[in-house]
Amino acid sequence: MKRRFIGKRIAFVGGGKFCSKLLAFIADETFPGPRPEVMAIADTDMEAPGIRAAKKMGIFTTSDYRELYRIEGLETLIEVTYDLSLAETIRKQKPEHIDLIDHFEARFIWDSLHVEHVKRKTQWELDERGSDRETVFTLFENLATQVTDVIERRHARYQQIEQELFRQKRALGQIIEGSTIPTFVIDQEHVITHWNRAMERLTGLRAQVMVGTRKQWMPFYESQRPSMADVILDRIDEATIEKLYGGKWRRSVLVEGAYEADGFFPNLGGEGKWCWFTAAPIEAPDGSLIGAIETVWDKTEEKKAEEEIERHNRLMTETARALGKSEAVMKQIIQGSTIPTFVIDETHTVTHWNRALEVLSGVFSQDIIGTRKQWTPFYRSERPTMADLILDQVDETRIERLYSGHWRRSELIEGAYEAEGFFPNLGGEGKWCWFTAAPIQAPDGTLIGAIETLWDKTEDKRAEEEKERRTRELSTLCSIYTALSATLNIDTALFMTAEELQRFSEADGVCIYLREDDGRYRMRYGTGLSADACKKVRLVDDTSIIAKVAAENRFTLFEDLPKGSSDEIRFLEEQHFVSLAYIPISSKERQNFGVIRLASRQPNQFSHNQKDVFELIGNRIGVAFENAILQERYRKSEEKYRTLFDSDPHPTFILDSATFQILDVNQRTQDSYGYRRKELIDLSFLALGDKDDPEIAHGLDQLEEDQSAMFIKKRHYRKDGEAFFVNINISHARIDENTVIIASTTDISESVEKETQLIQASKMTTLGQMAAGIAHEINQPLNVMQVTADYLKKMMGRGQAVSQEELASIAEDFQSNVQRASAIIQHMRDFSRQSDVNRVRIDINAPIRDVFKVLGHQLEVHQIELDLDLGKDLPPIYADHNRLEQVFINLVTNAVDAMDTKAAASGNGFDNRLTIRSGLEDGLVTVTVSDTGIGMSKAVQEKIFEPFFTTKEVGKGTGLGVSISYGIVKDYDGSIEVHSSEGEGTTFTLRFPAVR
After folding, report:
1. What's the rounded Cα separation, in Å, for the pair 195 and 261?
2. CA–CA distance, 525 with 505 (Å, rounded to integer)
């Protein structure tokens, strides 16, 4: 592929941004390989970025790509317009010696050259820096990263195209869904893509059941067979169509390439339905067949009426035959019929003309009976009626000449024919009629007359024409929307739309004018007979019809050219246009982008009946413009977002609000966690932390859209398994109409480590302060064992035997006191170990009870009475036993000091009481620690939780105990409050969320 580009003499068709990027890349000194020689660039917009760049580089530019064919020495044309049909046109037009690279191949070459560039750069760095393991690994990582960037750019482009296709498909779906005519659409794989509500009502099958399947046959047939849409898609020959529909089909008069048919479908409704259906092709811009649309019309009631008329005709014919010459009786029967009927005899003279026919034709029986003027109500000049043809027993060749395929043999009456036609003399504007003529025979078989009945089908025909018109409109909209979906290039969209509009409207010419930045309107595309007129008047000002239609933003028709001398009007007159339609190009917000002008040399070519379709097309192009503008804004916004996103010093994640999967991360996240971006995408955010920590999952699940939340001291893991601590902030956000969660993490490992060391130091201080109490606690079991040992030694010295009961008692004392001492020592070990920031379910009463394993004796020495009131069956909380014990030890030792200080100051005995209570209040597990000590002033209470604040003498306190306790409680989402009165005592209240 690259050989077709490297070192070649090339020219570009399309001067957009991609062209300008290619030019810059070719000119760059790092271009890998022999540079191609750029000989020319063509684009209809002479202000396009690639055109401007080419002019600066002295490269030939043109607005007509066909001029490139004549450049001497040109080897390769590169089409970068994203116009599928233009590439195909160039392929057919270009000289054989010129190679064509379309925009798909150009993108591939672009990516290949960039990879080649990176590969060469990597090889050069290897040669320069050596090939040690670390260097090779670093360069390989860089190469892989840049290749991945190329892939990601491709992916972003495809995602952009896919999103645009989705928007176009959704807009088309809304049009089809809004149609009152039962409609379905299939794609090139025969898979149903649309199944509107009208079709649901007709068939009883919901869209969610049918869309995505190939079961379009199911509502209509007993077993699988092609629908008319399938016939269109497979381009089945007409002989096969005849086998499928048995003569009940025809080519559509209105829609090119479409077919129509009717049939009875026993599966529809309770008793089956007669339906008329039309299927039309949906083509891509290059003419390839990419789908088909089928509309269905319930004709059951009409068919029943038709059958009733045929039954009536048969009855009338049989009656006429039976009565023969019973003229009076026959006249009475015919006159009493509600169906328009006349009879002629063997001489072609009218013998009967009933009242129903008088009403239909406006001709009274007394004026026509006895004459041979049965043709006068129906034709402008004399010609045979169907009854005359029956009577003359003409061959079917003559019937075909008279009725041109709009006739058939009657299925019910032998020797009878049926036909339909339009009779301009009937009524004010003419009528469509279905008529049947049958022979009247004498008992011996002799032909003695003919009877003809008529059925006014004007309303049915109008309904049928309306249905066909709507089918044609839907088919056209499908093609235009498909054209708009096939490219993101607005010039290509205009080219495709103009040609489709010309086919649909049967206009002689189409011109598209777009609004410039200065407010004037410039011609961007013209086709048909008006193309030259468009080119002559490329720019129009605010006095033109174009500008006025745009200002009013309203579909406008002209049957007579407005009087005026402007260039616009003069050139239209020169082209002999007499019928004009102006379609504003505007968005849903009614922002005008331009005007489409349809022109015809035929009067009354365009009508207000087409207004809705034309306005939809204009609006669709407007939306395409709006999307292009929004896409550019989105691209710039995306670049700005990515810059800000990657510049954030904190790791930041974008999460799916339902699954918590990672959708995007910034560069800081990759640096901090050691993962590449693609490794994190679609990974669950919860997988980065502890699996046994349900708090984050619960918090994410419960987060409301207008809320934010923070998780403190959570353990996360890097790619290599290293653990570190983070604070996590989460909040909701909206991106492209989707709700996501933004999670930002802050590495607090260093502060957690220092805090842990501080808590450990506080523990060691506490153990030192409690040394006397601990020694007392251990001495008690040792004293018991010492007394017991002395007793045994004394008994052995006396030679006295010790009974088995006494020995068992002594052994039990030894065992219990050893266990007691061992438990105290083990508890000291547990308490003194450095605890992690763990969150597990614990009973809050457990660490409170353990406090008094080491402080029980201290309370006795200080003559403090303990009132321990711990609630039963309290729900657990998330915390760490060891750390909470540290909190309660700090509070109890502070309470002891406060009561000692009060005793020393008063010199009198008073009630030293420590009260600890636990319980459940308002869904929170609550603990209060109260003392009867000296209390605190308000000033002291305001500073009590500050680090290093203390009221103790120098050397007797660090001021860290309460501060550390405050931090530990906060780690477990708890709160701690102090209430105190000087001289009366202090109460600390701790509250923790209960785990349910």
Report:
1. 20
2. 17
